[in-house]
Amino acid sequence: MFMLWQSLTMFHCYLGTLWTAIAHAFTAVVGAGILALPWSVAQLGWILGPFVVVVFAIVTYYIASLLCDCYRTPDPVIGKRNYTYIHAVRELLGPKSELICGVLQYSILWGTMIGYTVTTAISIASVKRTTCFHDKGRNAKCGVSGNLYMLIYGAIEIFLSQCPNLEKVTILSVIASVTSFAYALIALCLTTAKLSSNHEFKGSLMVAMVGNTEATSERFWQAFQALGNIALAYTYCMLLLEIQDTLKSHPPENKVMKRASLYVVAGTALFYISLGCVGYAAFGNDVPGNVLSGFYEPFWLVDIANIAVIIHLIGAYQVYAQPVYAINEKWVGSRWPTSPFNKIHTIRFPCSRKGSLHLTINRLFLRTIFVIFTTAVAMMFPFFNAILGLLGSISFWPLTVYFPISMYIVQAKIQRGSYRWFGLQALGFVCLIVTVVSGIGSVAGMVEFLKKARLFHIEI
Known about the structure:
Amino acid/polyamine transporter I, 4 strands, 3% strand, globular
């Protein structure tokens, strides 16, 4: 999702076209959150599930089209460029809004790193469990603990965190595109095959219902949580201006980006509905939170999908982490500029003339401690769907709705009290309610899990 964030903002060549914008946007949108869509549709039922997926797509496209006109200020065609989302917030809404936006963005980056640690552990455990069932049979005891895999993942990320400018390596975006589409397509194929073998459509019509039994409070919380999962799957607006910044100035960037947004959101919605509905029809109300964990055969194909998730998230973790590292190290460097901890040390690799690594004690310790802390939090709170829901609820209203609408009102000089002003405010208020409800559901899901779980004892 943020795989292009850093690389796109580093180069202002302005050679992009409609098709490059579409490619970048698809890479930004499609991520590991797609694997939770069947579960999300299952919590909402056949009536509300597909409807909510479509409504979120419509809202995302509409707000994206408004945001496209905020790339240049004060004129959307010939005005000054705003290279990033946060630059546009500062230009149109002022420094206070910029501070709030920055805190939210960095909080989401860190929360996503926690979610990636949990998701990777689930995928590694799924590979081991699938292979175990294939070798020993489905009745074998193949329980695995996620603690070890989170520690291994954390160790890998500690090593990669010391590699300089990793977020600028273009190959990361290529790997992200290939692996994300690989596991998403495999998940769709597996659910389609399971549905065809069942010879029936499973699931229920109403929200939070299981067969003919009445809904429980826990099921209602999960239905609210599902709203956040779906919102996170459409997270796009935060990256839109960065992608728009790569486009040629003729034809006008805002018109090209609006077309790209239409194609991307429509195509993504179609794929999301397909996977979400087919997965729900195949598993019914028993669909797992990560749809891939519900398959064991063909074991090699399931393993390929899970390995694709692992490879994707190893690189994606660093792209999310680099901005967090940078702001911490910048603050420490400005606070104690003469400290020996900020002195640059060069490590030269043997048998290599050009191979060397530049680091500071500050960088070595800060990044290592940060990854250790993130891994420890992930081990304490390993709720895949609850984390996705909470991230979606946190990011959806302020970053996907409130700031874009507020910027557009200023940019388009919409008068306060006009019909359009009331319409935009009403849209923002409805989305705020969705955000609050999904956030409550996610927190409730975490509380329910903590009642049954022991810290640092994770069975996946």
